[in-house]
Fold these 4 entries.
Entry 1:
Amino acid sequence: MSSPSGSGMAGSTTSTTTPQGLGLLTAQHVNEFLAQLLQQKDELEYWLTEHLRLNGLYWGLTALHLLGYPDALSRKDAIAFVLSCQHESGGFGAAPGHDAHLLYTTSAVQIIVMLDALSELDAQGKGGCRKVAEYDEWAANPTSTVVAGLQDRNTGTFAGDEWGETDTRFLYAALNALSLLDLLSLVDVDRAVAHIQNCANFDGAYGVRPGAESHAGQVFACVGALSICKRLDLIDRDRLAGWLSERQLDNGGLNGRPEKVEDVCYSWWVLSSLAMIGRLDWIDKEKLKEFILSCQDPKTGGLADRPGDMVDVFHTVFGIAGLSLLGFPGVQSVDPR
């Protein structure tokens, strides 16, 4: 995702409404929830979610940018935290002391680029941008490097770390990070594209690997990767859009696969995929807006997976990003990739 910048804290009366009168509780989301992400160290939940800290910072910063308040979190503190997660090899873990992984490394790159801090990474990081893209993940195997070197040059797919698990999420994450660093040339893009094609199913959607069940999250990963590689021409757009449109339930929410309940995070995974293939009008936008807004907590701020559940930063950012794709007033535009 990428979005334009604003500044400051949200005013106490900030709220944008739909024709049905449901408001986007911007002030609560900014002041009560998102601005506190790095300040809750006395709460048990903060430490129980340490394995998601770097991802969570990216989600929170993205939500603040989309709401028009990127300065609600300290830029200096955010950059310092990201750099504290970096390994000597160049990669990043979820938090200081955690093992490096491709998903955390991608979140680190996304944060650095969002904060226009590539110069800080070069000056204060461990080896600069090139080291992040090429870094040696495992000292005993110097040919294995996380972003570029974790690609299997035979199949085109990517592992998440030195342990070898593969997933189309990792392929997308690698291409996302390398494209942001302008270093896509380090990998075999054609083989990556061929692997994505092998993950396509009869229904037009995609799974984690060839032959795996279609899932909306994997659809986003594969379509996003094809978009980065400028190969959206390979997609059967109407067939895929038909499968994605069937993810909408009677209450307006979206699910990730057949026979599952709705979840606000699919407001991003499904909508972004539809946006990339030019089929955003294949779902009922007004019903989805109402569903997303109903997942807000007016007391604490933030959004939950569905109405009445506990809020978290993951569902908050993807609910707000969904509103962005729907053109909701007061929400900045977002790149669907």
Entry 2:
Amino acid sequence: MRRPGYGKLGEAVRLELNAHYVTPTGNRVYHQYDVQIGNDEKRGLIKTVWTSAQLEKRLPGRPTDWIFDGNKMAWSTHKLQQELDLIIDLDAERGQPALEGRKPDRVHVVVRPTKTGAKIDLNNIYEYMKGICGWGNHVIDAI
């Protein structure tokens, strides 16, 4: 029996997926971090601050060594030696002085290890998929 046709209800929607392609190589372990950018800022501002040259200079490694979920979590193969707490000056980032009569456009940023201090070994996923190890919390944590 053939399908009688497609439904007439609903509409096409744009769907975005928050996922990152990561290939496990060697014995890399990813460290998980809480990220606080400002106080309930909009996503556009959060992205601007996260990609700012000022923050990139302070994070260890290259910017591509960091995965940011666009909200409050980040992962990196680099371990922060201490909590990162700084003010990003967006006026300076844009290369312009603060407008006269307005307060400077500055955003407070804190990057700290999660309370659990999670270390994520992506090799656990690889080994599970290859049948080298069984299913367990170590695989769930990596996912």
Entry 3:
Amino acid sequence: MVNMLTITGKCFRVPDNVRFEIDDCEAKFWKWPEDHFDYIHMRFMIASIGNWASMIRKAYRHTKPGGYFELQELDCRFTSDDNTLLETHNLSYWSRLIVEAAVKYNRPIPRYTDYVGWFEKAGFTDIRQVVFKSPTNPWPKNKTLKDAGKFQLLAHTEGLEGVSLGLLTRGLGWRAEEVKVLIAKCRPELKDRGIHSYQTNVFITGRKPEDPRHSSNNYSSRHSNVSAPLTPTSTSSSNTHFPNKQGSPPAPPEEINAFTPVMPVVGHVASG
């Protein structure tokens, strides 16, 4: 029997060793046993999780000893390293509003620096963090960063309204029309190459020790959250930190039992 998945009216063949299960990743207990997954991958769950520390502890609990948990997240706050983005800009206002709304909606948006501490407290070792700065338009001179800015600009001009409506209307009680006016004011700033703004992406992996009783972690003492400024002449937007002597984690086995939580529709309303 061929396993098929229908997405937006199109059918796709699903590999025989892949199946989709629906569960609440914020439930007190996951339906899978402890020490179950070789690899858990989670991404872009901002404004969807009420307690990040608890979520990461559950990921640790259900990862096999020697297995890995990977988290890829966005710190959606717009910022700049050369003060071309001012507090009076609409993008800065949007950042403050969206964070405030997420808190009131009980889905706080962490800063990108917060996750490592939760990994450590959960018990993960061999923690690796990579931080990327994503320019909001093609203002950098570096071709790679300029290309990234083009994609980001398209994503923001077409999608910022959609990701804002749910939080600002439900969290702060705004009317949809008010949200649309704010986004309309943000769009010229998104396109302004004189504003060297960006958002921050963070990729973190952690390994569950073979014997959790002997877990140790010295990430905090070795890690610096100071990132290289992103300027028009930057050649790279990323900083990689290897806190332990082991360096990057080894490649996972060819056959793994993996789990990828998918962001639920909480606090987000797609625009019409």
Entry 4:
Amino acid sequence: MGKLIKNHWARLIVLTSGAYQVAAAIEGFFWPKIFWDFLTKTLDGAVKPAPILQIINLLLGLFVLAWEWPLKYIAGTWIHRSIEARLILLPLPSLAAVLLYQGTNSALYYLIGIGVYFWAYCEGEMVCTHPWTLPRRGGRGKV
């Protein structure tokens, strides 16, 4: 049995979260609601009459999907290979998602993905230059 590659697992979790965030943003255009509206009504201006929070969630969700899949021009760059950059930047879409009522599941998935990325970082994993590949081992000499 093989070893679990945690950064691939985290990538799948964050891809799922990004897709949920895009879907939540689109649904938020039709049914605008702040998650914390039971505590205060001061944040309602972020979703209606202008859909500011929905647009932010849509853009951040599309950015995460482009980063994690990754798109051709992102693959192999330092931002794609850096687990540290993910640990720093992924809380931002999570924060935007938790503010939107429809995006709470996405925010929770982001937090789980960040936890798995942190686990991978602690174990010294690396993200390969080519997406969805395994790291190459050092050359084997003759015995």
